[in-house]
Design brief:
Layout (H helix, E strand, L loop, with lengths): L10 E3 L17 E4 L10 E3 L2 H15 L8 E4 L5 E9 L2 E15 L2 E10 L2 H11 L6 E10 L4 E8 L6 H7 L3 H11 L13 E3 L1 H29 L4 E2 L8 H17 L12
Parallel strand pairs: 10-11
Antiparallel strand pairs: 1-4, 2-3, 2-4, 5-6, 5-8, 6-7, 7-10, 8-9
Length: 276
């Protein structure tokens, strides 16, 4: 991405000196410690000092055996709103594009979005094209960006070569990626689709419940009260996990996350195997 001219966070290998501090003195804090391959915010930490950075690196190495080429990395912390760019390519040529802005995340500043809306961001679509076209990309991809408000740049955070959690938002707004991919597989190609309805919102209901738990842990009763009131007031045109015609998946999902929380006390499912 950097060689293609796309802004990325300053990134450092997580090498440690004997006293536990990062060898690279140019790392500025706060910073991000994370695995090179992961799932949502699992294993991602905001650190405020070299000592805390060292502690989290050691945790990732001992808990998940991440070392060497799979070892954790330290990245520049970028403050600002997040955006997702959803694309479909046919042998290196763009065939569909859709952009979403993240309005609320499962665990505050990090993690999967639980509320988002469709927006128009041709600059981010162009970044996606610049990155994936030379690779001859074929199929879907989802790119995460953060708008760096301080330096007024769009910073690429990650690329996922798969369908994304908020897929229904794109479909509700007018870009039916599963149908387009199906047709492309059968017919060889599809016409370009880049127009869709703006301001369409989608929610992940179970994710919002997890957000309530996180708010209670971080801010107590005042936090959960504010979060619960916000949940009641929010409206959306689509939901990731609920249909009146088929409500069973929502209850199955609630049972799955509820059992995991009861066993581990974590608002994330067990993450062994999901990192690295």
């Amino acid at each position: 991405a950097r060689s293609a001219g796309i802004p990325v966070p300053a990134t450092y290998r997580a090498e440690l000196s004997t006293n536990g501090e990062t060898l690279n003195a140019s790392v500025a804090f706060p910073a991000i410690v994370k695995p090179q391959i992961g799932n949502s915010a699992k294993g991602v930490f905001i650190v405020s000092s070299p000592a805390e950075c060292s502690e989290k690196i050691g945790f990732l190495r001992s808990r998940y055996g991440l070392d060497g080429d799979r070892g954790p990395i330290v990245q520049e912390y970028v403050e600002g709103p997040g955006y997702g760019v959803c694309v479909l390519f046919c042998h290196g040529e763009l065939r569909a594009a859709f952009c979403e802005r993240y309005l609320l995340s499962k665990e505050g500043r990090l993690g999967t979005s639980v509320l988002r809306e469709s927006v128009e961001r041709p600059d981010l679509v162009e970044h996606a094209r610049t990155l994936l076209e030379p690779l001859g990309w074929h199929g879907v991809a989802h790119l995460d960006f953060i708008h760096d408000e301080e330096r007024d740049r769009q910073v690429l955070i990650e690329v996922n070569p798969r369908f994304w959690g908020a897929l229904d938002l794109a479909v509700a707004a007018g870009v039916d990626f599963p149908w387009l991919l199906y047709r492309m597989a059968l017919e060889g190609d599809v016409d370009l689709v880049t127009e869709y309805r703006l301001g369409v919102r989608s929610r992940w209901l179970v994710g919002e419940l997890i957000h309530l738990v996180h708010a209670a842990r971080m801010e107590g009763l005042s936090g959960i009260g504010s979060a619960f009131w916000g949940m009641l007031r929010r409206r959306a045109q689509s939901h990731d996990d609920f249909r009146w015609s088929d409500p069973v998946p929502l209850f199955a999902e609630m049972l799955y996350y509820g059992r995991r929380f009861a066993r581990s006390g974590s608002t994330n499912p067990i993450d062994v195997g999901m990192i690295g």
